[in-house]
């Protein structure tokens, strides 16, 4: 796909939009509905200025636009460009407008001029003006009727783009989500973002059926209705039924139900919250349901669910939280405290340092020596090494993983099927850790892929010095253990790693040649994901230290 040059071609956005329509037409020909086909046909038959004006509107916010603000040099006369759009029904030049529309489109001074006969205090702020006018103008009017209703004409001609829902569906089919905007083309053209080139197969598309498109759209609409204050029960009724044939759509549906359940919990509607948590497949839903049942006094039911979680947890985080809750439930039921496995001991370091604005930097500067350099890496280094070593597995062109040129990673990265579908690819990559090839592979990827978007590699956090020391000092057995843990739960395990790493490049053979250091300032405590990473390292005899810092002046305080 050719991305238009936004600096040389003034109609770059039109070229890019044409690319989207061509891409979608080729890959979704069997799934397009009549409205989408009709729009593509009518759009392609328009004069170039009209097509350009329509795309300008599509890429702006909302559906309503002031004609006097649709001024673009490369389009010319906006009214002339608008006429074919109105004739084709793609734009309405006399739309019904509510008071909200007017307050979105016009300035305070323009509104005062329009409603001067109805405003007792015209000097009020815009929000207060709207509040005063709302009871008088609850109805929507066409522009000419607003002149009669308000006593004055509106300040400029307003048009409405009638095909925005169709354009949004086409954007959804192209990107596979509604998060990405058409601005991705410009960011790629200007080199702000660079993406890995992945070959597309005939089945490389986000949706395999029209039903999937409609269900995605339905879930998205329900989420928006809920987030903008829509009736909770109406939103729930509008959601599709359980989607058994699509894991990722069911996960999206489950997130909406989870959000509504959280709202019910916060409002004190605990019985309803518990019921909704039970219907959601969200990763935190079972733990929240246990907590709600505990608050309701349903301790036996909460304990049964708590045990089920620990026997078959969906993640380490879920197991950890259930283990924390279970002793409380045992006490409430008069039962003995459940047995627990003691965590492996973790080395602790206490430092008293001069006060600094950044506690991690203060510790790094205190510990660093020429023989033992210290770097602030937090979650970046291990993720980057994994991303570089396993680059071809992450970007393997599997069906449903890549379906447009602007993906920083596979679409199924956070889904349970991500690793199983690529197990052989990852095993080939990890097998390099058993030979001397792994260092060369990482160095080569670092040089070849520099700056290309990746879900694991934050290029700004890497340097030649850091990478060289990491490859020299980190044992491949430790790298393999970290990488395999990442693959068990990418969403949770990409975070929580220690803040600092200290290298000992000149240490005698057979001794630890690095140390990871988690820094905690005054009053700071380990978070759950940090505890899990530290416990994992301790269990595998990986050198990790928790450094607790106090400031010198705190010791002097009475």
TrEMBL record:
InterPro entries, per the entry: Fan1-like, FAN1-like_WH, FAN1_SAP_bact, tRNA_endonuc-like_dom_sf, VRR_NUC
Keyword Oxidoreductase appears in the UniProt entry: no
Keywords: Hydrolase, Magnesium, Manganese, Metal-binding, Nuclease
UniProt EC number: 3.1.4.1
Residues annotated as domain VRR-NUC: 433-551
Cofactor: Mg(2+); Mn(2+)
Catalytic activity field: Hydrolytically removes 5'-nucleotides successively from the 3'-hydroxy termini of 3'-hydroxy-terminated oligonucleotides
Family assignment from sequence similarity: Belongs to the FAN1 family.
Protein name, per record: phosphodiesterase I
Organism of derivation: Kushneria pakistanensis
Species classification: Bacteria, Pseudomonadati, Pseudomonadota, Gammaproteobacteria, Oceanospirillales
Gene name for this UniProt entry: fan1
């Amino acid at each position: 796909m050719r991305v238009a040059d936004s600096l040389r071609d003034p109609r770059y956005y039109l070229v890019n939009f044409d690319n989207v329509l061509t891409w979608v037409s080729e890959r979704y020909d069997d799934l397009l509905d009549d409205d989408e086909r009709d729009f593509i046909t009518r759009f392609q038959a328009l004069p170039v200025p009209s097509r350009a004006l329509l795309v300008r509107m599509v890429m702006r916010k909302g559906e309503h636009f002031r004609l006097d603000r649709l001024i673009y040099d490369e389009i010319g006369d906006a009214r002339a460009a608008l006429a074919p759009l109105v004739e084709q029904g793609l734009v309405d030049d006399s739309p019904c407008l509510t008071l909200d529309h007017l307050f979105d489109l016009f300035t305070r001074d323009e509104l005062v001029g329009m409603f001067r006969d109805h405003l007792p205090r015209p000097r009020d702020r815009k929000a207060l003006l709207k509040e005063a006018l709302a009871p008088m103008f609850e109805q929507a009017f066409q522009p000419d009727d607003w002149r009669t209703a308000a006593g004055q004409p509106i300040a400029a001609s307003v048009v409405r783009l009638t095909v925005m829902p169709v354009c949004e569906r086409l954007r959804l089919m192209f990107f596979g989500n509604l998060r990405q905007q058409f601005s991705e083309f410009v960011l790629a053209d200007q080199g702000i973002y660079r993406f890995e080139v992945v070959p597309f197969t005939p089945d490389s598309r986000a949706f395999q059926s029209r039903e999937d498109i409609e269900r995605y759209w339905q879930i998205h609409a329900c989420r928006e209705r809920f987030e903008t204050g829509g009736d909770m029960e109406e939103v729930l009724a509008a959601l599709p039924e359980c989607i058994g044939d699509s894991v990722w759509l069911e996960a999206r549906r489950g997130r909406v139900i989870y959000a509504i359940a959280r709202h019910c919990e916060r409002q004190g509607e605990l019985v309803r919250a518990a019921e909704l948590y039970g219907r959601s497949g969200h990763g935190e839903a079972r733990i929240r349901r246990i907590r709600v049942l505990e608050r309701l006094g349903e301790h036996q039911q909460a304990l049964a669910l708590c045990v089920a979680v620990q026997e078959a947890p969906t993640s380490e985080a879920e197991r950890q939280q259930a283990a924390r809750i279970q002793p409380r439930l045992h006490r409430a039921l008069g039962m003995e405290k459940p047995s627990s496995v003691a965590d492996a001991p973790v080395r602790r370091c206490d430092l008293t340092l001069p006060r600094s604005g950044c506690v991690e930097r203060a510790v790094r500067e205190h510990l660093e020596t020429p023989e033992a350099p210290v770097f602030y890496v937090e979650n970046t280094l291990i993720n980057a090494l994994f991303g570089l070593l396993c680059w071809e597995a992450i970007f393997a062109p599997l069906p449903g993983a890549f379906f447009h040129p602007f993906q920083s990673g596979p679409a199924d990265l956070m889904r349970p099927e991500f690793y199983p579908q690529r197990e052989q690819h990852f095993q080939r990559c990890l097998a390099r850790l058993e030979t001397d090839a792994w260092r060369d592979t990482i160095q080569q990827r670092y040089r070849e892929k520099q700056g290309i978007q990746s879900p694991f590699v934050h290029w700004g956090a890497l340097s030649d010095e850091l990478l060289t020391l990491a490859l020299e000092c980190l044992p491949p057995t430790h790298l393999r253990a970290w990488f395999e843990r990442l693959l068990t739960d990418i969403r949770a395990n990409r975070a929580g790693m220690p803040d600092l790493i200290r290298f000992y490049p000149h240490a005698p053979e057979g001794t630890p040649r690095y140390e990871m250091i988690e820094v905690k300032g005054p009053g700071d405590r380990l978070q759950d994901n940090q505890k899990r990473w530290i416990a994992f390292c301790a269990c595998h005899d990986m050198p990790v230290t928790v450094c607790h810092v106090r400031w010198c002046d705190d010791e002097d305080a009475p």
